[in-house]
Amino acid sequence: LKTQYLATSEGDLAIAAELLQRGELVVFPTETVYGLGADALNKNAVAKIYQAKGRPSDNPLIVHVSGIAEVSRVAVGIDPLALQLMERFWPGPLTLVLPKRSNVPDSVTAGLETVAVRFPNHGVACELIRRAARPLAAPSANRSGRPSATTWQAAAEDLDGRVAAIVCGEPTGLGLESTVVDGTDHIPLILRPGGITLEALKAFAPNIIPYSGLGSGQSQTPSDAHRNSPGLRHQHYQPRAKVIVLESITLLQHDTAAIPPQSALQLKASHFIGCTSPEPGLFRKVIVCDDVKEYAAKLFDCFRNADADAAVAIYCESVPEDGLGVALMDRLRRASNSSDNNVHS
Ligand code: TXA
Ligand code: MG
Q: How far is the CA of 140 from the centre of ligand 2 (A)?
């Protein structure tokens, strides 16, 4: 398959929309990460997504729409609170899990009775959905198990020759995926932390159940047993370099003499990302960010860069677990594979 590289011009988006209508795969930018899109109501097109990504078939997809009215094409019996969440946070990085309509292919939802829906806050994404005139199923545009793509070049690295087209937009602003909220009940539950923070959701829905950390792919209370996010069971965000989460970088700042020679050699072959500057010369490459927002935006690109540079490891400074820091720490922990829950199935 020869992948077409398209611009974000009207003419090129018309070409991309036509490919989608014909059941082909098109990569497109969103405000979170690049998506690997297909016609959500065409099961042959959806099957191609799993093939191109090498994605396990038990991990359902997010359906992207360009307006709240379109949700009724894929979901039914929407809880009033879910509707209020859409009105408050859409367009934006919030995905809502809703009862699915029967016309949605089982492959989109991995056989679940629910469907995940999102209205992205991105002009190119919305224009493409409108022109295609159908909801688009789109997981992140990376090979399964690799870091999400935050640039079209990253998507091309993983998917060239596997998709009909890549819409080459800007690097994504947010850099982390959407927050996934189960909205099938009047008590919403956060299944994956992301671009919309718990604080923002709580201000609006005070009874929302927070994300309970790694392992919440399996619910913790029996009454929540039916509410889970299948994707969290799978291995995620793994660059080839070893990801090491640094609880504190004070050692790397002040007391370099205390680092054993072996470790010093490893650091010299490694990259660093964080908000604090380490001692100069310790690492091969250093990315120092002004704040958590910039850190989040640069993380996945940093992972891919480290691999391109054949770095031994990526040292990632921890951040406080509030605001966007919750999603960032979740991605760091998954990438560092520090949980028994990261099993391939
Ligand atoms: O920001 C994003 O959400 C990006 C962009 C492209 O929109 N998409 C994305 O998709 O991150 P993906 O496939 O990488 O992650 C989808 C997540 C997975 O954790 C999956 O298990 C969960 O959403 N999910 C999808 N359908 C679900 C459902 N019916 N019930 C529970 N979780 C669901
Ligand atoms: Mg993904």
A: 4
